[in-house]
Amino acid sequence: MSAKFSVALFLVVIVLVQYTEAASKKCTWHGTAPTCWPSCPSDKFAIKENNCGKAKIACCVLGKKKLCCPKTLQGQITPEMAEAMAD
């Protein structure tokens, strides 16, 4: 990997992190244990699902919690980024 490519990639990552850092704070987990069949609000989309969400204590026995992010971020944020910055 060339040095120029590495620097360019680093700068792109920095810009993406700065852009998504503020916007993805609006990502939130939905679903209440022990039965979780949540829907995302109409202005958000589900980017990730799992049994526990952010709270690893209150996990779903049935269904899954959903990580919902603003539709304006669709295609611009990864599930990992959304989860790391979710409220």
Overall description:
The protein is of the alpha+beta class and 87 residues long. The protein has one domain (3-85). It has helices at residues 3-23, 79-85, and strands spanning 28-30, 35-36, 44-50, 62-63, 65-70. Strands 1-5-3 form a three-stranded antiparallel sheet, with helices on one face. The longest helix is centred in the N-terminal third of the chain and has 21 residues, at 3-23.
Task: Outline the fold blueprint.
Elements: H1 3-23, E1 28-30, E2 35-36, E3 44-50, E4 62-63, E5 65-70, H2 79-85
Q: Keyphrases for this structure?
A:
87 residues, alpha+beta, globular, signal
The gist of it:
The protein has 2 helices and 5 strands; from the N terminus they run αβββββα.
Q: Helical residue percent? A: 25-40%
Mean pLDDT: 80
What does the main sheet amount to?
3 strands, antiparallel
Radius of gyration: 16 Å
Signal peptide: 1-22
Keywords: Signal
